[in-house]
Amino acid sequence: MTHLLTEISITAPPSRIWHLLTDFASYPQWNPFIRRASGEPREGAQLEVYLKPSGARGMTFRPRVLKAESGRELRMLEMDTRRGFEEMNRALKVRAEG
Questions:
Q1: Quick one: pLDDT at residue 85?
Q2: Would you kindly state where each structural domain of the chain is located, as residue ranges?
Q3: pLDDT of 9 strictly over 70
Q4: Cα dihedral sign, 28-34-37-43
């Protein structure tokens, strides 16, 4: 099994970061590849995300929310054989530093 881990530090209060990560409708405002995103940040919910990179064909993903711990972690599972993955488990974690 292949794992990929990336981290980014953002200078903002954790509550603000959590709000941005769970406000799916606003994703197109800060991610140019995402044209539409909807759903609720609650366990068991299914999200719908439409991606269309410039010059590429658009595609819709429907990840399921596995974990939604308010202010701390949003974990999603996506089944996707188009990109060579059987499943992608994404965890977005918010933590205060310092």
A1: 56
A2: 14-93
A3: yes
A4: negative
